UniProtKB/TrEMBL annotation:
Keywords on record: Coiled coil
Annotated InterPro entries: AAA_dom (IPR025669), DNA_Partitioning_ATPase (IPR050678), P-loop_NTPase (IPR027417)
Coiled-coil spans in chain: 91-118
Lineage start: Bacteria, Pseudomonadati, Pseudomonadota, Betaproteobacteria, Burkholderiales
The protein's name in its UniProt record: AAA family ATPase
Pfam families per the UniProt record, alphabetical: AAA_31
């Protein structure tokens, strides 16, 4: 049965989608069967996997409101090498429509039951908000991977996310835990980043992943080609780091 992870941080632009897409590709490089779920109406994970968000028969929106099954919605993304449950702007409407539906936080989890044994890993790219969409992701997950930049306010923002995860753990999903904090867009030449990185390790110990993702322009260029950075330029430092991170995740789940 698949292990399911949310890539979440309510801060915008911290590298969630880049992590979701490249961890998916990094896990494929480790011979894992991967499903990437795009839970963000921006549809960036969809496009970044080479799936055209403008031409979807079904998307995660239809799944959440019960108009399509997961099996009817998941596509194989051939260039990326993994499967995708895509999203586009339709999903913005789900936030309102879900409020009146039964099991509103559990709808993604219930939909995934049908297909989860086809995968080793299911990754969920969350939107930059602690919304009902993110809640559906957290209820479907075994754990949360938190990408973060080592900047001054990074730790402060983390406490809201940690509190939300605690509440979901207590009330909705007793399986949920933080798997780890992933340092991304890291620039070792910046003293402040080194300092924040050290603070993180002091506060969170082995909850900080060993792998560090460097700032690397090839990772930023890849989405405009509809490719994960790991496929676009496998030899680039950023790509290599995500492949290494895939290996670290494979090891991490053995102890779960
Ligand atoms: P949002 O909150 O809007 O969903 P996000 O958290 O998903 O954003 P990304 O879209 O992954 O963040 O990244 C934000 C920007 O930073 C993008 O332009 C992306 O290409 C770039 N980026 C992400 N990681 C790296 C990296 N390691 N090196 C260089 N650029 C990066
Ligand atoms: Mg994103």
């Amino acid at each position: 049965m698949a292990k399911t992870f949310c890539i979440a941080n309510q801060k915008g632009g911290v590298g969630k989608t880049t992590t979701a897409v490249n961890l998916a590709a990094g896990l494929v490089a480790q011979k894992q069967r991967v499903l990437l779920i795009d839970l963000d109406p921006q549809g960036n994970a969809t496009m970044g996997s080479g799936v055209d968000k403008a031409n979807l028969e079904n998307s995660v929106y239809q799944v959440l409101i019960g108009m399509a099954t997961a099996a009817q919605t998941v596509l194989y993304a051939p260039t990326a090498g993994y499967s995708v449950m895509p999203a586009n702007r339709d999903l913005a409407g789900a936030e309102v429509e879900l409020v009146d539906l039964e099991n509103r936080e559990m709808r993604l989890k219930l939909a995934l039951a049908e297909i989860e044994d086809q995968f080793d890993f299911i990754l969920i790219d969350c939107p930059p908000a602690l919304s009902l969409l993110t809640l559906n992701g957290l209820c479907a997950a075994d754990g949360v991977v938190v990408p973060m930049q080592c900047e001054y306010f990074a730790l402060e923002g983390l406490s809201d996310l940690v509190n939300t995860i605690k509440q979901v753990h207590a009330n909705l999903n007793p399986n949920l835990k933080i798997i780890g904090l992933l340092r991304v867009m890291f620039d070792a030449r910046v003293t402040l980043q080194q300092q924040v990185s050290e603070q993180l390790m002091t506060h969170f110990g082995n909850k900080v992943f060993k792998t560090i993702i460097p700032r690397n322009v090839r990772l930023a260029e890849a989405p405009s080609f509809g490719l994960p950075g790991v496929i676009f330029d496998k030899s680039a430092r950023g790509a290599q780091a995500y492949i290494e991170f895939g290996g670290e995740m494979v090891e991490r789940i053995k102890t779960m």
